[in-house]
Amino acid sequence: MSEDVSKTSKVNPKNANSNSDDLINDLESIVYKLEESIGYNVRHFTKQLRFRILSNFKENGIKVSIEEWICLAFIFRYEDRNQNQLGDLLMQDKTAVTRLLDTMESKKQVRRLIDRRDKRNRIIKLTAEGKRQYNKLRPIVEYTIATAKKNISEQDYNTTVETLRKMCINLE
Predict the structure, then answer these.
(1) 18-144: which CATH number, 1.10.10.10, 1.10.3370.10, 2.30.30.90, 3.40.50.11270?
(2) In the Cβ-directed half-sphere of 87, how many Cα atoms lie within 13 Å?
(3) Is the pTM of this model over 0.85?
(4) Helices and strands (H and E) in the chain: how many
(5) Minimal CA–CA distance to 26: which of 17, 35, 34?
(6) What's the rounded Cα separation, in Å, for the pair 132 and 172?
(7) pLDDT of amino acid 34
(8) What are the domain boundaries of the chain?
(9) What is the tens place of the pLDDT at every residue in 3-43?
(10) Is 101 within 8 Å of 151 (Cβ atoms)?
(11) 61, 97, 127, 148: least surrounded by Cβ within 10 Å?
């Protein structure tokens, strides 16, 4: 399935010693450029966004992790989900979700109720404090995202999101 590199590159191994400058230029043209890759740029953006959101939380005197914010947002949007479903939304394993919910429960942001349909499951609910915290954090996150989107057209933004969704589907 892998192709012979000598067939796909500009470098001709027979002439490799003829001109070292040409060889370097040819090698640079086929070397994987990490900083131009989708993976690198998505990771870099995610890291920058997380850092900026946390900085903005701190500037407003709020001590909440990004994971707590994301969990609050998912629970707010998708009510009556159990821990397993929440783990799927958060893309985290059961242990990580349990630890996160333990922290949030200790902060009185969420409560776990026994699922009437399946007593093995716990339904996660936002408390009044959780809703208050969500409503306090949401404008900060929206402001941060608006800052990131500055000078980017709505069409470019929507195209980027749609392209990333399609790429995720391709990898499933």
Answers:
(1) 1.10.10.10
(2) 13
(3) no
(4) 8, 3
(5) 17
(6) 36
(7) 77
(8) 18-144
(9) 444 444 444 455 445 566 776 666 666 666 778 888 889 99
(10) no
(11) 61
